[in-house]
Design goal:
Rossmann fold; 6 helices; globular; methyltransferase; S-adenosyl-L-methionine; Class I SAM-dependent methyltransferase; methyltransferase activity
Length: about 200
């Protein structure tokens, strides 16, 4: 992975950038990063894809992303509502989203992401869910000490101005809805209170 100098950092979201990068089709002509924030994942995608578009509804995040892109060719950032912007359907080899889909209507967002993929394209969503059951709470409590140690050792850092909100959907509901909308998708629960959904469009 190409380093990004002073703008390369680690937190619970960037930890899963590798998961997205490893899922990229090869070759990758066009990639879309939904909810790109200040653009770290998009910049990393641009080392492998010919064209990368990052979209975020926060104008401040897009301002930061453009400033940090440094004139990189094939990389653009849009301040727009992903669900309303007229992206061309079937135009992307990769559509990805990290820790953003809980800010949107889950069904509408996942459906739109799938529609934007070319046949054979890959969708990767990393998201957050809410603990609803005793088993969920037990799992979260069990991994907390390891997470606290990792945060200290790795130096957890979050970009200034990043919008935050708590997820509403439970782990089980996310899994059921994802598999209903994307038959054949793979759902996995991960450390750092994250899950992933990976799907290849037929």
């Amino acid at each position: 992975m190409t380093r990004t100098g002073d703008h390369d950092y680690w937190n619970h979201n960037t930890h899963y950038h590798r998961l997205v990068l490893d899922a990229m089709p090869d070759p990758c002509e066009a990639a879309l990063d939904v909810g790109c924030g200040e653009g770290l994942l998009a910049r990393r995608l641009a080392t492998r894809a010919r064209r990368v578009t990052g979209v975020d509804r926060s104008a401040e995040m897009i301002r930061q992303a453009r400033g940090r892109a440094g004139g990189s060719g094939g990389l653009e950032f849009l301040a727009a509502d992903f669900l309303r912007h007229p992206f061309p359907e079937g135009a992307y080899d990769l559509v990805c989203s990290v820790a953003v889909i809980h800010h949107m209507d889950f069904t509408a967002a996942l459906t739109r992401m799938a529609d934007l993929l070319r046949p054979g394209g890959t969708l990767v969503v990393v998201g957050l869910a809410r603990d609803r059951t005793p088993l969920d709470r037990a799992f979260s409590g069990a991994v907390l000490p390891a997470i606290m140690i990792a945060d200290r050792v790795r130096g957890k850092a979050d970009p200034a101005g990043m919008p935050m909100t708590e997820p509403e959907m439970s782990w089980g509901r996310v899994r059921r809805e994802a598999l209903r909308l994307l038959p054949g998708a793979r759902f996995r629960r991960h450390l750092y209170w994250r899950y992933s959904v990976r799907w290849r469009k037929p």
